[in-house]
């Protein structure tokens, strides 16, 4: 889902603002297979059935549905192009977290318009790609994009405030999304023991806390007897910041301030703290933790990695992460276009910065296919007392 009011997934389930993840469903197997395309947390446009993830957007059930009921072809005419561009410029100036950059983007888009660069583009996805490319020529904000929708895009206020409980979510979520939640592992892909002392937890997303709290508690109960833990986020598309805070809570011994998210519209930064009483057993603040990360670690996945590293609570092994730290939400540009615009930014109270455009830099570089073996070896030697675990940030 992409985060609407909080974090991210590039391409994260039901958030009006997220860090972002897109789910594509295919038939077969005991469960629907998931292909996370990430951007900041999950953003569900329930009216049109779209999940926006940090940088990617895809109707959830479209691949199957369109085989039976193909959508009508939308021909983009001059009026639609003009409306989309004019509204995009207005929404950027009103909402983008860096007003000066919004003005620079406007200047480039208007120049391209005067040059006739958009004239004659009658295919919606092509126009969306071109506008996104031109925006990224000014700012490399990975959560920002223009998206075409064959269906009619709902008004900006169609979703209302994001749900705060599972009951609220179930009242508002469309049937396919509720079905997905009932069948899915909700991002907890694997919980395992790599030998008697080392645990392994693989997460593909950080769905809203009220959907994953029981899954996190069950996983941590199963891993509580291990002496060291590997958390695999190499294919994590992001999600919700409150779920990041929930998971970090298992690895500290006292209440800790983790991240602030500053909102342009309100001018206020919301603070995210650990949860006092997470369900299940705490892992504690002493046992060694290794995080596997790489380019497929996005948005909320990066938030967790960055925060654990900044707290010196984990060693990060792998490659530099994706680099998207600005929570974003969709803004309607017309009947068939919307723009995902970052209107907030993360500020770590520990580093006073974030990972936007840079990514989280691993403590120990490793190729993706070597990272797990390296983490296992490092943990086992650490637990045997023959090798210190590299301190995060060193």
TrEMBL record:
<dbReference type="InterPro" id="IPR029045">
    <property type="entry name" value="ClpP/crotonase-like_dom_sf"/>
</dbReference>
<dbReference type="Pfam" id="PF03572">
    <property type="entry name" value="Peptidase_S41"/>
</dbReference>
<keyword id="KW-0812">Transmembrane</keyword>
<dbReference type="Pfam" id="PF11918">
    <property type="entry name" value="Peptidase_S41_N"/>
</dbReference>
<feature type="transmembrane region" description="Helical">
    <location>
        <begin position="36"/>
        <end position="57"/>
    </location>
</feature>
<dbReference type="InterPro" id="IPR005151">
    <property type="entry name" value="Tail-specific_protease"/>
</dbReference>
<feature type="domain" description="Tail specific protease">
    <location>
        <begin position="161"/>
        <end position="367"/>
    </location>
</feature>
<protein>
    <recommendedName>
        <fullName>Tail specific protease domain-containing protein</fullName>
    </recommendedName>
</protein>
<keyword id="KW-0472">Membrane</keyword>
<keyword id="KW-1133">Transmembrane helix</keyword>
């Amino acid at each position: 889902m992409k985060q609407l009011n909080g974090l991210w997934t590039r391409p994260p389930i039901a958030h009006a603002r997220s860090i972002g993840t897109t789910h594509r469903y295919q038939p077969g197997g005991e469960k629907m297979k998931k292909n996370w395309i990430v951007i900041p947390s999950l953003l569900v446009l329930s009216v049109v059935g779209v999940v926006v993830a940090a940088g990617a957007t895809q109707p959830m059930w479209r691949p199957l549905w369109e085989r039976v009921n193909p959508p009508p072809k939308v021909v983009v005419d001059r009026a639609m192009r003009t409306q989309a561009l004019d509204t995009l410029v207005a929404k950027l100036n009103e909402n983008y977290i860096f007003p000066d950059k919004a003005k620079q983007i406007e200047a480039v888009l208007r120049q391209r318009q005067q040059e006739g660069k958009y004239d004659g583009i009658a295919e919606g996805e092509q126009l969306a790609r071109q506008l996104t490319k031109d925006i990224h020529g000014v700012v490399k904000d990975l959560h920002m994009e223009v998206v075409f929708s064959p269906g009619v895009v709902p008004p900006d206020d169609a979703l209302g405030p994001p749900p705060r409980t599972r009951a609220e979510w179930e009242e508002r979520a469309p049937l396919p999304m509720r079905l997905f939640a009932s069948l899915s592992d909700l991002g907890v892909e694997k919980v395992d023991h790599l030998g008697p002392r080392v645990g392994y937890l693989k997460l593909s997303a950080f769905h809203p806390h009220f959907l994953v709290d029981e899954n996190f508690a069950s996983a941590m109960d199963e891993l509580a007897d291990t002496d060291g833990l590997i958390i695999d986020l190499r294919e994590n598309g992001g999600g919700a910041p409150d779920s990041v805070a929930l998971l970090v809570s298992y690895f500290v011994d006292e209440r800790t301030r983790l991240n602030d998210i500053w909102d342009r519209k309100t001018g206020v930064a919301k603070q995210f703290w650990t949860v006092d009483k997470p369900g299940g057993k705490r892992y504690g603040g002493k046992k060694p933790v290794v995080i596997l990360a790489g380019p497929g670690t996005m948005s909320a996945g990066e938030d967790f990695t960055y925060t654990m590293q900044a707290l010196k609570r984990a060693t990060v092994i792998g490659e530099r992460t994706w680099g998207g730290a600005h929570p974003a939400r969709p803004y309607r540009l017309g009947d068939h276009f919307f723009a995902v615009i970052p209107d907030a930014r993360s500020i770590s109270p520990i580093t006073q910065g974030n990972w936007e455009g840079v990514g989280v830099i691993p403590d120990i570089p490793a190729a993706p296919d070597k990272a797990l073996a390296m983490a296992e070896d490092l943990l086992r030697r650490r637990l045997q007392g023959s090798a210190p675990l590299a301190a995060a940030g060193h």
